[in-house]
Amino acid sequence: MAILLAAAVLMGCAPCASARPAKDFETATLVEAAEYIPCADACFPLDSPASAFCFHLGDEALVGEEKSYLHEEKSSSTDDLSGKPVSIRFSNHFIWVRLADHPAMKLKRGSLFEGFKDAGCVAEVHKPILAHANSSRRSAKIPDDAIAIAGSGRGDFQPLFLWFECIRDSDSATIGCQRWYGNGDSSGKEWYCAQTVGGAPVAANFAIDPLLSQAGRLVLTSGAVLERDNRGRTGDKLDRPSEACR
Question: Is the pTM of this model over 0.85?
């Protein structure tokens, strides 16, 4: 079911971006290219890796991918082109790419690759996922102020998104994030320190950026990443209450 939903989001992701017909080739920048396994632990024997690409065209980010077994030589030779200009044209469903001294490529618009480092690329991956979540009927079990955050979306029991409600704990040193599946069932909790990975304290009125966040990695609207709390807990209670958040 997760794979079918992932495919549906990928197929519908382009209209969530700019709805436009394919136009002439334009000069863009290939920001990142990487290979990943879209199906993760739910792969079939003949499933192959995909190559994910992100381009900047002016202020716009575009993501696309192709199955690596179709273009292994092309995909494996694009790493050295990151940051360099390329020629692209795109429609709602495809991106056509011309690379200097490389064969042309036709990419499927959209991707589920979560490893992009560029914020614009990450946001472009998450846009259709969150659009799907926010257009779905919300279960009565999910609080009104909970926000949709992208999940891994690959493999059994790996949803495309989860609903999050993050509240600073009573000791003020931690932030507890209750999670729900789309049907309203609980998905447990994630815990974070009330500080960023850089050590800066988190304000009491902190806000999470859903476009840049994903399950297991929460990004504040300031762009700072919350420090994950890795302390042991039993039934949401700290095993060692005197231990500092880390």
Answer: no
- Measured CA to CA, the distance from residue 214 to residue 162 in angstroms comes to 9
Query: Which of 221, 233, 114 is CA-nearest to residue 176?
Result: 233
DSSP result, 33-100: EEEE-TTGGG--TT---EEEEEEEETTEEEEEEEETTTSHHHHHT-GGGTTSEEEEEE-SSEEEEE-T
**Residue 17's pLDDT band (boundaries 50, 70, 90)?**
very low
pLDDT of residue 74: 45
d(CA 45, CA 69): 14
Judge whether residue 77 has pLDDT over 60. no
Query: Stretch 84-110: mean pLDDT, rounded?
Result: 88
Q: Structure tokens of 208?
A: 């999470």
Burial of 205 (0-12, 13-18, 19+ CB in 10 A): exposed
Amino acid at 244: A
Contact call for residues 28 and 57 (beta carbons, < 8 A): yes
**Is residue 2's pLDDT more than 50?**
no
Q: Are 147 and 208 in contact (CB under 8 A)?
A: yes
- What is the rounded average pLDDT of the residues 87-114? 88
What is the rounded CA–CA span in Å between residue 203 and residue 223?
14
Helix, strand or coil, per DSSP, at residue 191: strand
Antiparallel, parallel or unpaired: β 60-67 and 161-168: unpaired
Residues 5, 42: Cα–Cα separation, whole Å: 13
Q: Tokens for 245?
A: 């958040």
What spatial distance separates the first Cα and last Cα of the chain, rounded to whole Å?
36
Both tokens assigned to 101 = 């001294």
